[in-house]
Specification:
Blueprint (H helix, E strand, L loop, with lengths): L1 H20 L12 H12 L6 E4 L2 H6 L2 H7 L7 E3 L7 H10 L6 E5 L2 H5 L7 H6 L14 H9 L1 H4 L1 H9 L41 H5 L3 H15 L3 E6 L9 H17 L4 E5 L19 H19 L4
Parallel strand pairs: 1-2, 1-3, 3-4, 4-5
Helix pairs in contact: 4-14, 5-12
Length: 318
Amino acid sequence: MKKLFTSFLITLFLIELLVRFTPYPWILEPSFSQMGSLRSIETEIKNKNPKIVILGNSLIRDAISPEILSSKLNMEENEIINLGVSAGNYFLDYKVLQSLNQKPEHIVLQIDLNRFINDEIFSSYYFIKLSKLEDLGSLPDNFSYIKYLKNILFKSYASSDIWHRYIFQRNESEKIGTIIPKDELGQFDVYGERKLLNEGFYSIENYIDAIEEIDNSNNLFYFKKLCEYSQSNDIKIFLTHLPIRSNEIDENIQKYIENYFQFIMKECVAEKKLIDNLDYNFSSNDVFLDYGHLNNTGAKIYSEDFSKTFRKLTSENW
């Protein structure tokens, strides 16, 4: 019995080593999943030393073309990379920034309110895969602590459902380890030819009492850590709110939005500039796939205009 128990412990230890130090089981996830998105951006940053890094979720992935931006700023294509991913949170932004071979000069960081409100950091696969002992201190001090503790200490258990999906629900049309292809704008092409999406809902009224809702949130915690890291490494940040399809913003809500931006600016200790494109006027709704994801037509328009704003702000005093 003692030998059996010892063999069991050794087996668990070996599986834990496998999960921590090899691509398995993470590589088994399809390209459109969180792990597939992470795999794609990890491939993107390999052997690259970008000067400008774009961080955020799928909205910024689809909004800013690195090819257009590099062309307009007279930079090499590999000097600008867009690392926006599906359901990307500030924990992931922070870890990706830390992993870069060489620290960038500038970060374009998405600060849409939904990024702070959607606060399920510790249950995300990004956290399961990338969290370390240093992240123990960020876990919530409540009954969920033990639940999320396994995502740091026992990654073999936390990722076990990946094996289950691969065995019983695998899509055999996609090869293991596939990354997301790119389109003509140099962006990850997740949606292909789709004209409409149903990726959620965004209400402009969320900005009412937004500060109270996101203060002390998990995302705000890692947002501040990212800003501290940027300050320590002389990285300048463009805090960027992307365009959202919405009705005209009335004066009352506009005051809440301004308070939100003031709060976010105050919480970030790094050198930063604000780019507020919340009510960006495309003069057409045909550029949106849903409440905020842009199609390629919208991405072209926005990327060209964003490059002008970027150039203008970088020429100013910080």
